[in-house]
Structures are given as C-alpha cells and as structure tokens.
C-alpha cells in the first residue's frame, strides 16, 4: 500500500486548477487535494506552514520570465516547502533556475502515473527529482557532453527527444517498444512522432527511418549500451 500524499495546488486559473485536481486524483498515492492562488501562497506566513506535510504542486506559466520572476519573489517559500513544479517547459536553464529557487522536483505534464508517484515519494522525503525526459539532457549538460553525438549532418536542428525517437525508429522499434524504452505512454509517443514528422516535412514512418539512416552520425548514441 502506497503512502498517501496530501497536495496543495498553487495556480491562479480556476479551470487549470480543476484540471490539475482531476489529473492528480487519478494517481493512487494522492490523498487530500487543496488549492490556492500564487499570490495567496506567496503571502503565507512561514510559521503557518512550518510543520506542513503537504506537497506543493505549482503549475508553471507558459512564459518563462513570469515564472522566474515569481520564483525570485517567493524564494523564501520554496526552500521551506516540499515543492514540485509541473509544466511543459523543457528548457534546461529554466529548470536549473527553478531548482536553484528551491523547487524539489520537476515533471512535464505528460508524465505517466508511475513517475508522478515516484516524484511525490521523493519530494515527501525532501529529495530532488527530475522527470526522465529531462534527466538525461541535464546530465549531458552537467558532464559536458550530450547523450547523442551531434554533427552538421542533420539539415534540421533536432532536440534530444527527437533524436531518441529517430534512433529507435532506425532500429525498427514499434511505438509500443519505444514507449517502454522512454517510459512514456504509447499515445504520447504517437504525438511526439506526429510533431517530428511535421518538423521534418514528411508523412510516413519509412521517410523518418530514411532520414535517420541518411543522417545516422547526427543521432548515434555515444554509449548505445544505455539504450539497447
């Protein structure tokens, strides 16, 4: 039986709050859910939450500068609360800034339930957690190398996720297998592939595989043992 985690959602838009509540209610380890606005949260006296066991879930803004400003202004809270940031932003510098402001964990909004549960468990123990989608890219940044060796072969700039998808396509993996490798749902893989096809201006899987093969040096893993 999983330990239950009480949640405090910090979000200004009431429709987004309801969506987050519905989203989190489907996670087995989530207990009671409450919500408040960003302004109200930033004005809370520290003593009032001194012994609070809630996990604070903050929905990130679409515009990075708004989040960074809020983090700076409410910085004293994030170092004292179990704070988890949930959003679509995959910019490494933004995520680093959030962690520097005291956020304990970052998840993308398409994170599967098992990953949400893992993040909540870590945050409940005052431990840091970064979603699997971003952890490899951040590790590459910290250690001075990318997971993928990227050259000028590719005529289109590809991000880490796109290079991962092309790598597995070139190896003949089906969507279900790719989903398992990347710890994503099959529907999410289909969505990512659809965006990738649009970016590459192609229509079929065979064209994506051909692109991968033609530009293989741009998407080859530096250490294939991590992914085979």
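Sequence proposed for the structure above (228 residues):
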């Amino acid at each position: 039986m999983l330990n239950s985690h009480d949640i405090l959602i910090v979000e200004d838009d009431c429709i987004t709050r309801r969506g987050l509540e519905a989203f989190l209610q489907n996670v087995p380890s989530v207990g009671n859910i409450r919500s408040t606005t960003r302004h109200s949260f930033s004005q809370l006296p520290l003593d009032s939450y001194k012994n609070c066991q809630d996990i604070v879930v903050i929905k990130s803004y679409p515009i990075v500068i708004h989040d960074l400003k809020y983090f700076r202004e409410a910085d004293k809270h994030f170092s004292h609360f179990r704070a988890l940031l949930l959003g679509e932003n995959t910019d490494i510098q933004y995520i680093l800034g959030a962690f520097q402001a005291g956020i304990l964990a970052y998840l993308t909004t398409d994170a599967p339930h098992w990953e949400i549960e893992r993040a909540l468990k870590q945050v409940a123990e005052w431990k840091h957690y970064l979603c699997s989608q971003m952890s490899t890219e951040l590790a590459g940044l910290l250690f001075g190398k990318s997971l993928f060796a990227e050259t000028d072969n590719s005529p289109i700039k590809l991000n880490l996720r796109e290079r991962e998808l092309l790598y597995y396509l070139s190896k003949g993996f089906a969507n279900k297998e790719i989903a398992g490798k990347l710890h994503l749902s099959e529907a999410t893989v289909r969505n990512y592939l659809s965006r990738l096809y649009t970016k590459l201006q192609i229509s079929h899987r065979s064209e994506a595989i051909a692109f991968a093969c033609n530009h293989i040096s741009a998407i080859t893993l530096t250490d294939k043992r991590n992914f085979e």
